[in-house]
Amino acid sequence: MPGTMSVDGHQTSVFTFQSAVHCCHVLRSLDEQRKEDVLCDVTIVVENRSFRAHCSVLASCCDYFHSRFLNNASQNLVLTLPHQVTVEGFEPLLDFTYTAKLLFTEDNVVAVRRCAQFLGFHNLDQACFQFLSPKLSSHDAAVQLDRKDGSSEVPPGENATSGCGSRQLENWDTGSAAPQPTPPPVLEKNLSLDFSPPCPASPPFPAAPGQEQLCLQSCGPELQPSSTATGSGGLCPFLSMPSPGEEPANLNISEGVALEMVDECQIRDKVEVCPLSDQDPLPGDLSLADQATECSTLCPLRTSATPETPDKGALIFESSENTPSTLTPMETSRGRSSVEREVAEHLAKGFWPDLCTSLSEPQDPEDPPSSESVGTVDFHWLKHLDLSAATSECPFLRDLGSDETPAVEDCSSAAQSEKSPCPSPINSADYSNSDTEEDASATQERAREVALPFPVKQISTMSRSAFQQILRQQQLTQEQLEFVHDVRRRSKNRVAAQRCRKRKLDCIHKLECDIKKLRGQKDKLHQEQLQLKVSLDATLQSLFSLCQSVCSEGSPPAEQLLAQYLSPDRPSSVLLTPMSSPSLTSQDTLTSKQQVVGEAVPPCLKPDLVGPETPSSTA
DNA sequence: CCTAGCTGTCATTAT
DNA sequence: CGATAATGACAGCTA
């Protein structure tokens, strides 16, 4: 407001509130409306199948709909799409329109591409399909993610950023040729994990020069030399990861913990269980596993099945405005897909290739890598995740703790944030493997008493195999053994209790979500009932007036006429034609208008079939 | 002082 | 059979 600016140099403060979640909420709300057919104003017919939607939403995402709707401004438009558009291709695109997520499978990628091309969908780039088609068509051959050279799949010179190891899909997200405030979304190493913040509406950090993309890009090795994240405190904003050059001593995860994490990861990997699964967290990795549990949307290897779990090898393209669009590999079974393995391995090697080797530890002799584990994921890089850092340092974790739940959340993921103003230690950043301070000091005291030859912390953090090994090696006394087992048991149980409680809260929240959903459905049904009642009244009114007009022409009374019409002996072809029926007596004659109309109403319009409430009761 | 919520611990059961 | 996870119950602490 120029007029409000004072002339003495003092400027009127102008504040702009920009909600980080508003757009997500709007989109989610629209999606819910679509699913419940609320406020939908168009029916799209594809291959004889109907899809309800909102004109404005479709028009905003798609050239085809935009032009069609502009030319057809009628209410409740029914738009039949040409044969080029198939259900297989259109349905994922429609979902994408409302969710910003596009589900690809091996089977549908071609159809989706064709439909997107035909309809002129925004925010979808050809390169996306050019990348995906070979991936999905040769899925079993393991997706060949380009490593250092970035030379595979995408034809040379086609959106490939040479020497970067990743392909930048120009104009991927915005569909606009105008310069973007944020760098163009990058399909990091082809398959970015679903690490986008819960709501991608705003960048996780203020965009400083040279530091605009403080997400996967900044963490990746490609940007490492120039990344300012390294110099700014040494902490990568993404999950508070230490930067590559950081000394391991600075890690909040103790070396013992880190080593055991690796040990566990390798063990888990052998049995094909995601170490970051919310269903199977690392026993020896408390903070990490449970942070991952809390951040289920952040877990790249989550195993929790979703209702819309796609086929094996399916990928989700997620579009967001200010963060890189992502492709998230999905899985259906506990076993990881080759795509997923590739992704994890890629990230592990891609983030800190030097540290992966420098910090690698000798394998636990009891847990040698199986032959199957060759080529599987190495989670050494997880050692550098400082998940015990304050969540406020990490925009992603921080957001999880807020009440503003992400647009793509499921109920369970939001449980903690909504139910617990004070997150439990299992989710909070200050959680550690140690007991409370008093307990910890008492335990330390006891450890000194029994002259424990290794740190107490290791007792609860080391893997089972390492634990057994150290017990064998150390030749502990009976007292020491009892102490060690007691500490370990209590530690494990403590974490188990925390998990148990969190699950309980999640369950409660999920049930609350279900209640909310069912209430919405009830409201919707109630509205439908009211609408039907209105239409029923109108129908009855017109019917009765029709009868009266017929009666006024010298025909039998309207009631008798209706009774004749409703008589079971009536020939099916007779429609309100005056006739005499031997079965109709004066007693049969309906004397009440309400009775007549009640009988005349088709069964589907009878109030008692429409809903539990009769018109009289609702009136 | 009471209460609710959180947390650790123990006992038990299942895997 | 031992280790572990899950969970109910209980107690202590704290706001």
Protein architecture, described:
- Residues 40-106 form the BTB domain.
- Residues 144-193, 355-375, 405-446, 574-594 are annotated as: Disordered.
- Residues 159-179, 413-434 have a biased composition (Polar residues).
- InterPro entries: BTB/POZ_dom (IPR000210), bZIP (IPR004827), bZIP_Maf (IPR004826), SKP1/BTB/POZ_sf (IPR011333), TF_DNA-bd_sf (IPR008917), ZnFinger_BTB_dom_contain (IPR050457).
- Residues 1-16, 134-316, 320-435 and 570-619 have low confidence and may be disordered.
- Strands 2-1-3 form a three-stranded mixed β-sheet. It has a three-stranded antiparallel β-sheet with strand order 4-9-10. The chain has a two-stranded antiparallel ribbon with strand order 5-6.
- The radius of gyration is 32 Å and the shape is elongated.
- The protein is mainly alpha-helical.
- Helices cover 42% and strands 5% of the residues.
- It binds a DNA duplex (15 and 15 nucleotides) through residues 283, 420, 422, 424-425, 435-436, 439, 464, 468, 489-490, 492-501, 503-504.
